[in-house]
Amino acid sequence: MVFGFFKRKVAAPAAHPLSLFDGAIEAAERDAGELRKSAATLLAHRGMLERQVAQLEAERAEVGEKLDEAARAADARAARLLEADLRRVDAGLSAAQEALARASADAELLLEGARETSARVEALRAERAAAEARLLAGQAAGVVMQAEGGRQVDELELSRARDEVERARALAEIWRGDRKSK
Fold it and tell me: Which positions ≥6 away from 61 have C-beta within 8 Å?
């Protein structure tokens, strides 16, 4: 029993050149879409962080005012508690500002990537249009060359027919000459 080990493998048909462009364009469009979606998510996160920073800044100002009141009232216990609150708010504010800076930078990076990918899509579309025009021109030239080749074959056959007619005419002349001489 033979399991097809010795069968000849049939090569897959070559993909149409324009379909390769179409695939590259679709992939780049998907990439650009994913980059825009990720950037939008980061921009939404950045908005949340901006609100958090504003809230922490307001809370810091409030705790600072209360600390000043406690210092004026010479309330050491309240001052210690408010200083601890102020350190906690400052730590949260610092962390929120760092996260905001990272989110802004990352969002900008993703937006730049999306712009570059979109520009690549446009370049691929232009290249595809040019390739399509060249392909159509090549096909038209092929048709013309094929017609020209057919015309050359027709000319060759016509030349052969003319030669055959000349031979027949020459043979007829020879035949007439022989008949007259007899």
Answer: none
Sign of CA dihedral 31, 34, 36, 38: negative
pTM of the model: 0.60
pLDDT in tens, 126-180: 999 998 888 888 887 777 777 776 677 777 777 787 778 787 777 777 877 777 7
Domains annotated for the chain, with CATH where assigned, are: 17-181 (1.10.287)
Could you report the per-residue pLDDT of 16-29, keeping only the tens digit for each?
Answer: 778 888 999 999 99
Q: What is the DSSP string of the chain?
A: ---STTSPPPPPPPPPHHHHHHHHHHHHHHHHHHHHHHHHHHHHHHHHHHHHHHHHHHHHHHHHHHHHHHHHTT-HHHHHHHHHHHHHHHHHHHHHHHHHHHHHHHHHHHHHHHHHHHHHHHHHHHHHHHHHHHHHHHHHHHHHHHHHHHHHHHHHHHHHHHHHHHHHHHHHHHHHHHHHH-
| Residue 140: exposure state from Cβ atoms within 10 A (0-12, 13-18, ≥19) | exposed
Separation between Cα atoms, residue 173 and residue 45, nearest integer Å: 104
